[in-house]
Amino acid sequence: MKILFLGNSHTFVHYVPARVAHFCGSHGAPLETAMLTHPGVGLDWHLEQSQTYYNLLYGRYDGVVLQHNAHPFPGKESLLQAGQRLGSLVPQGTKIYLYMTWSEKNNPQGQEAMSAAYEELAQCIGAALCPVGRVWQQVRASHPEGELYFADGEHSSVLGASLAATVIGRRLLGMDLSPTLCYEDAKVLEGLALDPRMLDLTVKDGKLAMAPLG
């Protein structure tokens, strides 16, 4: 299976696609991934990039995972408009998956609007929903010992990225999305070793920065 990820830092921080590939491979389903991301952008930004069109139309992907702005979430209409436009570009035979993100650590009440918007878009375009945000909030409530947020209270920790990857991987494979099972898998996936030459989010001199893993 070959999957394209379109998103922003909530896709590339701690490399959610690599974790999804590892999860699927460990369950006997080898997965090839590609990633088109940029910090702070939404699906509307991707609609203005030539590589988006080329990859969707000629990449021969089995699936595409779409992820919109999260912090702040620009609202339902923004997601619906961009999501529907992107959905119209996806060739027949390429399945659309929606990567529902999580609200800020200090804004748990914002999750409902974000989740409802993704759920509406999934219905509108016939996409499969990866309800990361809903599972995230349930795991936070039941497993307060596991910190899902990075130091900024917006991005994911390694555990948080592993939880996102687990939810997406389980959806790709048609598996149970029980928060308990997802959390157990995320704890295992948290230990995944990535190539140390890759850049990842870190804190340097009290500020967020990108630096090599090694």
UniProtKB/TrEMBL annotation:
It comes from the Bacteria. SUPFAM superfamilies: SGNH hydrolase. InterPro entries: SGNH_hydro_sf. This is SGNH/GDSL hydrolase family protein.
